[in-house]
Amino acid sequence: xxxxxxxxxxxxxxxxxxxxxxxxxxxxxxxxxxxxxxxxxxxxxxxxxxxxxxxxxxxxxxxxxxxxxxxxxxxxxxxxxxxxxxxxxxxxxxxxxxxxxxxxxxxxxxxxxxxxxxxxxxxxxxxxxxxxxxxxxxxxxxxxxxxxxxxxxxxxxxxxxxxxxxxxxxxxxxxxxxxxxxxxxxxxxxxxxxxxxxxxxxxxxxxxxxxxxxxxxxxxxxxxxxxxxxxxxxxxxxxxxxxxxxxxxxxxxxxxxxxxxxxxxxxxxxxxxxxxxxxxxxxxxxxxxxxxxxxxxxxxxxxxxxxxxxxxxxxxxxxxxxxxxxxxxxxxxxxxxxxxxxxxxxxxxxxxxxxxxxxxxxxxxxxxxxxxxxxxxxxxxxxxxxxxxxxxxxxxxxxxxxxxxxxxxxxxxxxxxxxxxxxxxxxxxxxxxxxxxxxxxxxxxxxxxxxxxxxxxxxxxxxxxxxxxxxxxxxxxxxxxxxxxxxxxxxxxxxxx
Length: 497
Fold this sequence. Notes:
Blueprint: H1 2-14, H2 20-33, H3 46-53, H4 57-70, E1 73-76, E2 80-83, H5 88-103, H6 113-120, H7 147-160, H8 175-188, E3 198-201, H9 204-215, E4 221-226, H10 230-238, E5 242-249, E6 252-253, H11 258-261, E7 267-270, H12 284-296, E8 300-304, E9 329-334, E10 346-349, H13 355-365, H14 371-382, H15 385-411, E11 416-418, E12 426-431, H16 437-446, E13 452-453, E14 466-470, H17 476-491
Parallel strand pairs: 4-5, 4-7, 7-8, 8-9
Antiparallel strand pairs: 1-2, 3-10, 5-6, 9-10, 11-12, 12-14, 13-14
Helix pairs in contact: 1-2, 2-4, 3-4, 6-10, 7-14, 8-14, 9-10, 15-17
C-alpha cells in the first residue's frame, strides 16, 4: 500500500477540490489498470487503509463501494475484498470486438419470420409525413374536449384515492370502470354482458392482438373485410394468422364469399356498425347470417365497434354481440375515438368461459393498464360527463361533416363526388376524372394535406378510386380553408393539365 499512499498524497497536492474518497477510488483503479494490483489480489481492510492514510474509514468504504459497483473489485463473504479477475475495461474491448465481428455477418437473422410479415403489412397512408390534421381519419376533436372538467375530475379522484390503488390492480381492470362500461353498453349499444366479462386493455389494437393469440393458432385462416382496417390486418399477421380477404357489398361483408375463399376459417373480423373504410352499415339479415355461420363452423366473430357512438340520424344501431346466443362474439371498443387518443384505454367483452384465458394472457403481457386513468374514467362515466360529452360531440361532428360536404360541393365539384354519411368520423369522396387515388393522395400529401386513398386499404379487391377525408379532428373554419387549398392542389395535379 506504499504506492497507494504516495499516489494519494500527490493527488491531494494537485487538486484539493477533489473529494478524498474520489482520490482513493482513482488511486486504486489506476493501480489495477497499471498492473500494480494484479487480478485476484486481496486488498487490505478498509479499517487498515483508513488508519494507514489517516482518513475516515467511511471515506475508504465509499471508494470501495464505487469500485465494487463498477466491477473492479469483488467481495467474498468471510474472506475480504479482491481485485476482479475480469475487469470492466476488458469487457468493453470484448464488446467492441463482438460488434465488429457481428457486423461482418450480414446473413445472420436476428428477427422472427413473423416480424417480416408484419413489416409487409401497410401502415396508415403517410400519416406521419404531414403535421396538419386536415383531413386525417379517426381523430377526435381534442379542441372541444372538456379538459378543465377532466382535470378537476382526475384531481378529485386522486385526492380521495386510497393508497391500496397504488399497488398492482386487478389484471382484468378496475372493477368500478368495468361495471360502468357494462351498464353503458347494455343501455346504449344492446350489448349483453356482466361486468366480469369486461376486460380493460390499452386500446383496441391490444384487444385485437390479444383475441388473435387466444382464439387462433399460428397458420389458421381468418376472414377479413376488403377493403378494411389496416390495424386488424396487422394483428392477424403479427400473430401468424393468414388473413383471407372478403369483399364488401351493400349489406356489409359478403357472406356468400366465405366458403368460396376459405373452407377452414376459424374467425371473421367485422366492423358492422360502420364499415371501415366504406361506411356501409351491416344489415340485420347479414348479421344473423354471420352468427349462424360462426355457430355452424365453431368459429369466432371479432366485432370492432370503433365509432358507433357517432350516428347522426336516430339511435346508434345495436351491436352484433347483443344478437349472439351462442357466445361466439368477441366485442372490442375504445375510448380513444370518443375522448382523446392518448388516454390509451379500450375494452373487450368476452364470453364467460373465456374470461380466465384472457386474464392469464393479460397477466403475461401488460398485467393491467394504469389505475389512475381507469379510476378517473369510471368517475367521469358515473357522473354523467361521458354521455353528455358524446351527445355534444355528436352534434359538433354532424355540423363538421355537413360543412365538409358543402365545401366539397362548392369548391371541388369538378373533381370529387360525395354524399352524406349518417355515421362515423370520415367520408368517402369518389374521384370523377378516372384518376388513380393513390397517385392523387401522394401528390396532395406532398403539398401538405392528408387524404387517404381507399385502395390503400384493399388487399385484392378493386373498387372505385376514392379518397377518405376525416372531419372530426378539425374545426369548420379549418375545413373550409383546407378545402380551398385542396382545390388549388388538384388544379395543379399533372394529369389535370
